[in-house]
Design a protein that fits this description.
The protein is an alpha/beta fold and about 250 residues long. It contains seven helices and nine strands; from the N terminus they run βαβαβαβααββαβββα. Strands 4-3-2-1-9-6-5 form a seven-stranded parallel β-sheet. A two-stranded antiparallel ribbon has the order 7-8.
Length: about 250
C-alpha cells in the first residue's frame, strides 16, 4: 500500500502543515502546483525535500482558485481546463527535474477531484492534459470514478482516505459538513487498516462501502496531521501491510 499526503500547500509567507515531518512518513507527496496553493519557491523547496527523502512526487492540480483553496465548484470550459492542468503539471515537473526528481503521477485537488468522479466532460479534460504531457503518468482518483472510463489510454489508480468521512455512495462527505474529517488518531489508523486489509470503510450512516485502493491519503492540513500519518503507518506495519510507492 502507498501512503500519500497533500504537501507544499503554503503561499508566500503563509505556511500550512509540517511538510518535512510528513515527508519522513509518506511514500508519495501530492505537491500543490500554484493554482490552489503553492508558489515557485515552495514548489522547489517541497520537491527538494521529497527527493531527499526518496518520496515520489505527484502533481496536485486544481481549479484556478487560490482564494478558495481549490475547494469551490467551478465550471471551466474543456480547452481551458485541459490547458490549465497541463500548465500546472509542466511547471511542477520542470522544478522537480531541476531538483533531481520528476513528476511520477497526478492527483487532482479539492473541487476538481470531486467533480471528475461523476462529470465526464471535466474528467476528459484532465485526461487530455495528462495524456498530452506523458501517457505513462497514472492519476489518483476514487474507486468508481468516471475518470477511468473517459479514455482507455489513461492509467487510473484508486485511492482511499483514512481521515475523510464517506457517503453511502462511496464519495467523500463535503467539506462543509462538520463530520467530513476524522481527527482521532486511533480511529484514523483503524480505518486505514480496514481499507488496506479488507478493502472497505464504514460510511456516515453505517453502510459498509467497498474501497479497493492502491494508495491511502492522509491530508497535510488535517489537525494533528503528522501524528495521524504516523499512527496510520504504524498500524499498517503492525498489520503486515508493506508500505511502498505506487508510482
Amino acid at each position: 500500500m502507498d501512503l500519500n499526503a497533500d504537501l507544499g500547500e503554503g503561499f508566500g509567507v503563509w505556511r500550512l502543515g509540517d511538510d518535512t515531518a510528513l515527508m519522513s512518513v509518506v511514500t508519495s507527496a501530492n505537491i500543490a502546483c500554484g493554482f490552489h496553493a503553492g508558489d515557485p519557491l515552495i514548489m522547489r523547496l517541497t520537491c527538494r525535500t521529497a527527493v531527499a527523502h526518496g518520496v515520489s512526487i505527484g502533481a496536485q492540480v486544481s481549479y484556478r482558485d487560490l482564494a478558495g483553496f481549490g475547494r469551490r465548484a467551478m465550471d471551466v470550459p474543456f480547452d481551458e481546463l485541459a490547458a490549465e492542468v497541463l500548465y500546472q503539471l509542466s511547471a511542477l515537473d520542470g522544478i522537480a527535474r531541476s531538483c533531481g526528481g520528476r513528476v511520477s503521477y497526478v492527483k487532482p485537488h479539492g473541487a476538481l477531484y470531486n467533480r471528475i468522479v461523476h462529470d465526464r466532460g471535466q474528467a476528459a479534460a484532465v485526461a487530455e492534459a495528462v495524456l498530452s504531457f506523458d501517457p505513462s503518468l497514472p492519476v489518483l482518483t476514487l474507486p468508481g470514478s468516471v475518470l477511468a472510463e473517459v479514455n482507455d489510454e489513461l492509467q487510473v489508480v484508486a485511492e482511499c482516505y483514512a481521515d475523510r468521512a464517506y457517503t453511502p455512495e462511496g464519495t467523500l462527505v463535503p467539506r462543509r459538513s462538520p463530520v467530513s474529517v476524522v481527527t482521532d488518531p486511533r480511529e484514523v489508523a483503524e480505518r486505514a487498516v480496514r481499507m488496506a486489509v479488507d478493502g472497505e470503510v464504514e460510511a456516515i450512516d453505517g453502510t459498509v462501502v467497498p474501497v479497493a485502493a492502491r494508495s491511502i491519503c492522509v491530508h497535510g492540513d488535517t489537525p494533528g496531521a503528522v501524528e495521524l500519518a504516523r499512527s496510520v503507518r504504524g498500524a499498517l506495519n503492525d498489520a503486515g501491510v508493506e508500505i511502498i510507492p505506487f508510482a
